[in-house]
Amino acid sequence: MARRGKNSIKPLWIVTAVILLAAAFFGSRLFIAANSEPFRTVNSLDVKAYLDNANSLRSNIYKIEGEVNDSLGWSPSTGRLIAVSVNKGADLLPVLVTTDFNHINIQKGQKFIFILEVDNKGILRTKHLIKS
Amino acid sequence: MIRPLVIFLAATTAALAQVPDAAPAQPAAQPAAGSGNGGSPNGNSANSGGGSSFLGKDMPFFSPGSEIVTWDGKNWNINNNRVFEARFEKFLNAPPSTAESDREYQATLQRIMEKLTPGKITPQDMDEAFRLLTTAAQFSDDAKLCDSIANQVYSSWLAKKNNARLSAANTSLEFERKRLEWNAKVTAEGSRLDAPGSKADGMAAEWTKQQQLKRDMEMQPLLTRLAEITALLKTNQLKSEVAELQIKIEFQALIVQHFLQRRFQHAIIGTRFYRSIFADGDSQLRVGEDAKSLFAKTTGLPPTMGTVDSLANEIIRDVREGVQAFKFLLEKDEMESASKRLAETFIIGEYLPEIRTLNRDDKRKALAFVQKTNQLISALEVKDYTLAETLVGELKVTAKDVDTSKPTAAIETARQVSAMHIAKARNAAVSGDKESLETELKAAMEIWPRNPALTEVSKMIFSQADVQSRALVDFDQLLSQKNYRQIFDDKMRFIAATSMYPEKQEELRKVLDDMQVIETAIIQAQEIEKRSNYAGAWESAEKAFQKYPNDNKLNQVRANLTIEASEFVQALKKAQDLEGKNQPGSSLSWYLKAWNKYPQSEFAKEGVERLTKEVLPDAT
Questions:
Q1: Which pTM does this prediction carry?
Q2: How far apart are CA B66 and CA B30, in angstroms?
């Protein structure tokens, strides 16, 4: 009976290599993604707390990501007041986009990430926004 | 001849038996009675007064024309006074006196009268009649009147016996008187026998003188005794006459008393005894002047025992005829005449057997008629024409001869005049003329107080007034409670009630307008609800609720819809709550949430717009 040669590649080695390659791929992707979020250090707004009592959140800076639902009003001196749908449309938050962002087109259905400050009256005043 | 006396007796009986009750109220009745067509001839004496002692002050007087008795300054209607009515009704209800004892009593009286029949009477019959008096007196119906007669007869007999003794004494005295007269005569003549011859004139004269003295001395006691005897005779004669006259007067008074008491059988018995005892032909009544005048004027005859006897017999016959007439009229269903004849006969012959033995059923028929007529009189007096009309109808059925023309005329007149006033009252009520209404109702009531039409109209008017005033009170109360729903549900009642009050009408109009809004909101909410648009339905109800928070029905609809549209309602309420707390950010979020759930929501839209305006005051 003939004996098999010792230089043949074992399947276990192949599987291990594939897994390692995949892990490296997804890890790199995740790393890249994490590093691409510019407001990753800003806390997300606790919508429930805001709805219950916005006064408790006054002067704080929060981040929300949502879709523009409607434009409620526009003031040349103050800016635009829009309704932003968050939590997959479960809640609508009024966001005041100040005149600083007049150059940005904001339309219904667009998704944005807002950096917001809760002012004295509990209005979410935009500090930054980027399209998400 | 008998009628005036009968009337007098009726008047006497009624007057003695009753209490006057109409004298002050009928000042005109007395002269009318005195001048009545059928007035008694003794009317003048009756009214003359003057302190007569017979039966009190004045003689009773009865006027057949007006059927009014006048006595002692008082007036009574013989057919319409309570005592006569009571007495007559008692008689009509009483059982007939047909018991064995009643028959025995009447038989006894009859036997007494038979024993005393004039022309056939013997001393034995008289003794038997006297014995029967005591028998008759034992019956209760007799009221011991026979005893009175017996006592009077006995007294008369005693008086007669006394007179007999006086007569015997007078006979002895007469004999003595005659003897004395003879002795005196003999004495006077004896002196002449012993006269001297022709002796000397002087001696003769002396002798004559002595003889004269002697004769005088002998005659003196005789003459004295004769005078005494003569005086005694005269005294006895006078005594006898006085005693007899006294007993006669007593007996006559008893007989007249029985006559006036309408105990005619006793009066007859009395007269017959009297005439048997005093058979001297002197039957003149020695009673008071008034009584004499009464008999003389009513009968046209001098007052004698014969007059009393014949009148009593005549009355008994008259009563018998009256009873027969009553029975005949009863058979013919002529109740009015029958009742009147019975009443007249009863007044006169209350104690006579013909009256006392009348059948009770027959009397009850008369009673029913009398009661109905009395009731009719009372009904007309109190102007109860409804009852009067009913009674007239009943009387027509039971009494063929009843004359209903007067009550019918009174009823019809009252009906017409009352109807006229009621019609005017109705018009006044419709036109709201309270003054005329009251006047006409009062006039109608005065004419016919128990007019059913008046009661009906009054009830209607006053119930209307009552309903109206009650409705107005309710309206005010509900208005103060803001219970507009109740007002709306009863709107027809309040519309009618406030028709005469412009101010309240305006208040009601406002309430009904508001309620119309509420009702519209409710209907709208219910229609929206049918499309499963609960938020929209709730909002419709809520809008009305905010304006009219006290309407129960709206509250109920709203509460039900709050459950159905709970998320929308909750979001809206939260938004409003936070808006109230000056948290426009959070509030706006909730408004947006609510708006998102019901995009047609006006509340949410208004909230959003309001807060947007607050955030962006210069928004365009």
A1: 0.48
A2: 10
